[in-house]
Amino acid sequence: MGWLTDDACAIVTIMNRRLGFTVVEMVVVIATLVIIAAITVVSYGSWETRMIETQLKNDLTQASSAMEDARTKDGTYPGALPTGFATSDGVTVTVVRATGDHFCLEAESANQPGNKWTAENDTDAKAGGCPSLRFTAVDAGNAHTCAIADSKAFCWGYENYGQTGRGVTSTGGSGYARPVTATLLGSNVTDISAGGSFSCAVGSNKAYCWGLNSEGRLGNNTTTTSNVPVAVSQAVMTGAVDKISAGNSTTCALSGGRPYCWGENFYSALGLGHNTTPILAPTAVVLSSMSLPVSAISNGQYSSCALSLGRAHCWGVYLRFSGTGTWSATTPTRVYPTAVDNSEMNGTVSAIATNSESNSSDNTTSCAASGEEVYCWGKLDSFPYTYNTPSDLDVYFKPRLLPKGEMSGNISKITLGSTYGCAIADGKAYCWGSGLGLGTGSTASKQLPTAVNTDLMKGKVTDISAGTSHTCAIADGEAYCWGTGANYRLGAGDTTSNATVPVKVVPQPGL
């Protein structure tokens, strides 16, 4: 019994003599006592952890209330908790991030260092620390992605023309969300869009673009490619710019509630009343029957749509069905904004989308959301809906109701990829169509809107964007992507693997 102390050996010997226990029986008794003691320690540890976590959550709730009170008084969230705020013994609550409309708090107990809990103004307290970046918007392009986090621009994916905007041009790509060079763009970015090999953003109410500049898609009166943001010409856009949309080789923006477009102008895609191409700087769209102000704009390859006073207007390529199973882009094109037929829509239009990542004139599709319904028109056979083959030439010029499938609730956002679509309804993401960008856990086509897998992407979805074959979304301040992983377009770190379910975007190490 060399593994026992002298005192323990003496106790065992005495008990053995007095009680008649064998050594083996005594070993069993001691082992049992050790196990009971271990269970007691573990149970106490678990109880202590639960007590501490309850303290952390309670303190975070009180701290959140104090932050809200301070905002009500001063108009913004403070950078530190108000003087005099008291926490439980040993608990520290820190304001990690505070902006005009958002805060993130961390709570930690001295009795359990490292066991952090977090509270944000729009979510309940949860285990873990504040994320290094808080994403608020995302846009998936052809083979790259851009997003806004903490009012700054970030991009990842293919950068063969410098479309990630970080001063690098390479045939590889970046698998991490890296900051866009902000020399001109600044740190107050409010809108961002990833197009075909180029990107654009709005910073401090001005437009900036970077990447490939063929056809003048950067809007700076040149065709010179740039791997850092350049200022879009402000010659005619005299009002504050608040929205921008990068298509495959065209760009549109809203300035003072009026639409402006530039870049490639085939099929009168810029809404200028002609098809002269290229247009190297912003030019005012001819309004025709469209009233001001315009509140949203979606730019495709050869067509665009805008939202004016609750009604969708579109211009550009005019698709016709030949009756023999093929589609073609023919004249007349819509050279000016034309009101979309809303005779079968229930209510006003709240969101619009055009599949900007299609580089073919005969693959144009547009959709509009009205309340809890989605209506689509154009080349609908690119999407495996439950629609039948058209029997006449104009059947798809009239918006058709998309069956709801699993989708339920008011629709706040719709987006279209090359062969699929996605939407946000009551804070949840749904996709339909074909390809890898559906996020449903399989590569099978979905005829009806199907819920995106939420094993990892939990919380309320606030933004979603479909690229050519990958999709990205924002949920509770985190960015997620799924679909084709080539060129690191999913932003999941050092991997180019495809993903059939959402994977978390990884910020550049050190951010």
Task: Please describe what this structure looks like.
Helix content is 13%, strand content 39%. It has 511 residues and is mostly beta strands. It has two domains: 6-127, no CATH class; 135-504, Methylamine Dehydrogenase, Chain H. The strands form nine sheets. Strands 1-2-3-4 form a four-stranded antiparallel sheet, covered by helices on one side. It has a four-stranded antiparallel sheet with strand order 5-6-7-8, with no helix packed on it. Strands 9-10-11-12 form a four-stranded antiparallel sheet, with no helix packed on it. Strand 1 and strand 2 (103-109) form a beta hairpin. It starts with 5 loop residues before the first helix and ends in a 7-residue tail after the last strand. Residues 1-5, 319-329 and 384-395 have low confidence and may be disordered.
| Top CATH class of the largest domain | Mainly Beta
Low-confidence stretches: 1-5, 319-329, 384-395
Query: What is the CATH architecture annotation of the largest domain?
Result: 7 Propeller
Order of strands, main sheet, comes to: 1-2-3-4
Structurally, how many domains make up the residues? Answer: 2
Which structural category fits the helices and strands? mainly beta
* Cα-based radius of gyration, to the nearest Å: 29 Å
State the helicity in percent bands: 10-25%
Total strand count, please?
A: 34
Net shape: globular
Strand content: 35-45%
CATH topology annotation of the largest domain: Methylamine Dehydrogenase, Chain H
Main beta sheet strand tally, sense and closure: 4 strands, antiparallel
Cα(first) to Cα(last) distance is: 57 Å
User: What is the count of DSSP helices, taking H or I runs of 4+ residues?
Assistant: 2
What is the overall pLDDT average? Answer: 85
